Amino acid sequence: MPIKRNLLKELQAHLPKKEMTLLVGPRQAGKTTLMLHLQDDLQKKGDKTLFLSLDYERDQPHFADQEALLSRLRLEFGSRKGYVFIDEIQRKENAGIFLKGLYDMRTPYKFILSGSGSVELKEKVHESLAGRKRMFELSTVTLAEFINYRTAYKYQDRLADYFRINKSEAQGLLMEYLNFGGYPRVVLEDTSKEKSAIIDEIYRSYIEKDIAFLLRVERIDAFGNLIRMLADQIGSLVNLNELSSTAGISVQTVKNYLSYAEKTFIIRRVTPWFKNLRSEISKSPVMYFSDLGLRNFALRRFGRYTALHETGFLFQNLIHQLLFEKTQADGGTVHFWRTKDKAEVDFIINSADGVIPVEVKCRELKGGEIGRSLRGFIAKYKPKEAWIVSLGAHAEEKLAKTRVRFIPFYELL
Question: How confident is the model at residue 277 (pLDDT cuts 50, 70, 90)?
Fold first, then answer.
């Protein structure tokens, strides 16, 4: 049984658009599989398609220049409409200029492109194709996608009910996801041994292909050490000087490596939220990992967590993922709040409707537990509502004019 990806419907809806469809995301997150699914759907409807990959030597001559590719497309489609799938586009030098020229020729072909993270893809392609493409980001398998897959899609419209009623089984799946993450090949393997072998291969491929080859990073050992340090301090303020000293590289190199890790979809930078620049802490960000399994592998804890009470920071990282997914759809952003006197709130959702402070507790609550920092934020900024997200609690209180909601994490799915 294949893993159903929620992004598929959005991609299908974009196929009739003239814009190029650009699918980005971590290496081995399932982009090629998703493109092949789209191609299969089109072929079943009688549409003409062609799949090319810059990973295949036989296809590389078609990308020598724009005319070489157009000659191949004319041979396949003539002057009729056709759907052109191009995988691993980041391997094409000056990909942004190459694609811009193709689009501006107003051919009858629709281009669907995919690429793993690289500076070229995230910056130059994005800039060159302004107004000519729509970018879709595919993460590794989300918690909702994982639970649906593991329960054979019996509860896909009732996941909150499943967690509430079938509590023991659901918590077992939660622990599995917190341990192994969401890389599709890892999810599909049955044993811990095979999962470990797969995540090791994924990490090595990332280091060798994205970091060493594409970004030409020479200090691979230092880069790996930096990733391990970040894995050990998720949710903590990034101290560039400390990272520099421990990794044995300059502060500027640390900044470069952090940027590379972010642009290759390994980490996500979360910036502070503030209104009063004088009283809020400086702009140091915190980092969360895009995939929990890769974080655990970097820290040599892959598959080694045995109880939920051990997973406090992992659970916080998971909530960041869920909030990130939730806010992407409505244009909101996720931040954190910390002051010089050490008051802190884990997350701040910033949207057109205002801000929502979010505290995360990796335990079951019964209501009534509103911490000092959250009370301080509410008193200072008077948000309409605040959330306390935990393993399982459903309650509501009023603090001044703020509605404080105790929310089980699965209601964010």
Answer: low
**Is the CB of residue 348 less than 8 Å from the CB of residue 357?**
yes
The shares of helix, strand and coil residues in the chain, as percent rounded to the nearest 5, are 45, 20, 35
Q: Which of 207-211, 248-252, 259-263 has the lowest mean pLDDT?
A: 207-211
Output the six-digit token pair for 293.
Answer: 């399994």
Q: Which residue has the tokens 């990282």?
A: 317
Q: Which of 19, 26, 413 is nearest to 210 (CA)?
A: 26
123 phi/psi in degrees, rounded to 5: -110, -65
Q: Is the pTM of this model over 0.70?
A: yes
295, 282, 275: which is closest to 240 by C-alpha? 282
Give the separation between CA 39 and CA 35, rounded to whole angstroms: 6
CB atoms within 10 A of CB 83: 20
Instruction: State what percent of residues in the chain have pLDDT above 70.
Output: 95
Which pairs count as long-range contacts for 378-386, CB under 8 Å and 24+ apart, including other chains?
378/402, 378/404, 381/275, 381/355, 381/357, 383/354, 383/355, 383/356, 383/357, 384/353, 384/354, 384/356, 385/356, 386/356, 386/357, 386/358, 386/359
Contacts of 391 by beta carbon, 8 Å cutoff, 6+ apart: 171, 308, 315, 361, 362, 363, 364, 408, 409
Q: What is the mean pLDDT of residues 326-336?
A: 90
Residue 215 has pLDDT above 80, yes or no: no
Long-range pairs for 103-108: beta carbons < 8 A, 24 or more residues apart: 103/20, 103/129, 103/132, 103/133, 104/132, 105/66, 105/70, 107/70, 107/73, 108/77, 108/79, 108/80, 108/81, 108/82
Q: Are the CB atoms for 112 and 21 separated by under 8 Å?
A: yes
What angle in degrees, to the nearest 10, is found between the helix axes of 251-263 and 220-231? 70
The H-assigned helical ranges of 248-300 are 251-263, 292-298
